[in-house]
Specification:
It is built from eleven helices and eight strands. By secondary structure, it is an alpha+beta fold. The strands form two sheets. A six-stranded mixed β-sheet has the order 3-7-8-6-5-4, with helices on one face. A hairpin with a 6-residue loop joins strand 7 (408-412) and strand 8 (419-426). The protein is elongated. Keywords: ATP-binding, Kinase, Membrane, Nucleotide-binding, Phosphoprotein, Transferase, Transmembrane, Transmembrane helix, Two-component regulatory system.
Length: 429
Amino acid sequence: MTSAAPTHLAQALRRRRYPLTGWPWRALAYLLTSVPLAGVLSLGPLVVLAPLVAATNAARQGRPMSLSLTVFLNVVALTVLLLAPLLAVPVAAVERYRLGLVDDRPLPPAPWRGLAARYATGAAWREAAYLFFLGAVVPAVYWLFTLIVLMVLLLIASPFVVGPGEQVVVLWATAETPAQAAPYAIVGVLLLPVLWYAVGVLAAAQGAVARWLLWAAPDGTALREVTRSRARLVDAYEAERRRIERDLHDAAQPRLTNLGLQIGLARLDVPDDSPAARPLDAAHEQAKGLMVLLRQIVRGIRPQSLTDLGLAGAVRELADESPVPVGVHTDLARPLPEAVETTAYFVVSEALGNVARHAAATGVEVRLSDTGRVLVVEVTDDGRGGADPARGSGLTGLADRVAAADGRLLLSSPPGGPTVLRVELPWSA
């Protein structure tokens, strides 16, 4: 797996040098700038929570809840629900911009499609869900984390505040002298790096939720299935395979065989100590290797690396050869049919080629997972996006190959990226 500079906080946290980079400070800035926004948004849940608490107390005490409280509770809940998709518009715009603190991958803005669309699209309600997440979940988590930080600071400061007649409660014990408080202070100092990492984990988790809810690609119009006529394609591929096999067998293979024989005969006439001996040996080996390659092509156009390394190893070999840093993640517990492996290999090869030529990406993630009945191939890049099958034959040809294997190809590539190519190839054991 090729190493690459991290493009988001979750990647940076897995690096050994994380505490010494700028990522922890970016995470801290992300958390601090979340405080005022989350504080304002927390007023909404409080408005709903207050009458709910009053209603709960009335029920526990056996008192009937007043009609005015019931009406108020329902009106407030309905108002918050109706306003949430509208209030989410400016909040989502700010959050998409602010997400750049912990994630260098661009998150394109959601286009305004009218007032009715704010109540009829999944993207709008995901933004509303993030509004509640930021106003309810984030404040609660931040308060808990703040208490932990204060507790650690108290441990560190305990030897300096304890004195004659002064006691300090540290955790479950009471310290009356600096000597008694010193071990707790040492524990507090040792916990500082943990807190430094915890800041990153907290920011990465919040950023992941923001990206998941604010990314507009999962809407049906953005995730398009590129389909072709399977029957026509199977017939066309079979006819083309027979033509290639015939041409190679009748034309190229005899010539290569004759070339190998001529080089072999020439090598016999050259002394071993001659300067031409080594180049002739190399040419002879290359000719034999080319013959082997042609036989493989005739047998089914299957790369040798698939046979030698398996699908996971062959894909990692493609990643090593890519000019763009590629991370490969595989979850393949058993061998797959050759046709499925070959299709998946060429999907990854074509996808990485397209990224290198068109995407201007700084990193690519390739995932291979076997669900038991379907092999899922996902290629995600952080490039400029905007990939469209209608503008070129690369994606269409790839869709043809996938369709011929009875699979399907899904593409999400909004302007500004990221681009996600997902291929599902069914198979049976």
